[in-house]
Please model this.
Amino acid sequence: MQAHDLQSLLDLERIKRLKAAYCRYLDTKQWERLRGLFADETVFEGFGSAPTGSNADQFVAGITARLTEAVTIHHCHMPEIEFLDPDRARGVWAMMDLVDLGEGRSPKEAPGHRGFIGHGHYEEEYRRDGGTWKFCFLRLTRLRVDPLPVDYPAARRDLLAHAPGWLPFG
Model:
């Protein structure tokens, strides 16, 4: 195996861990850590929490305002990642998310409902920034959105909580 092949495999694994941290920080409401995953010039498209063209600060502010009290579950699968050069890559991830905003709140993705289960893809670009891979572009596309009815069972809030410092990203 060539040295550059080994480096590509290591970089691929680092990008996968970046995406895993994105899902974990989003679902466990670790907003500062989430913000740290994005390059300053990151651009977002297709997200219900921030308008298309938002930057990283606008995206995190939108996510924080919309999802702090919500129950969310994000699963990303089957990454297809290609390197554009040694410090840039693009990827596509199949995704599924559950967004339960709770009683009395209705998402624009499913008006008149308390949330939704969505299916689609993340299209992303990554850049090595000071030796660390970060997102520099995220687009969320949806193939299907299944509304959660207003009488969908409320999430239990008495479950064991995450330990934020258990496995810090970095």
About this structure: The radius of gyration is 17 Å.
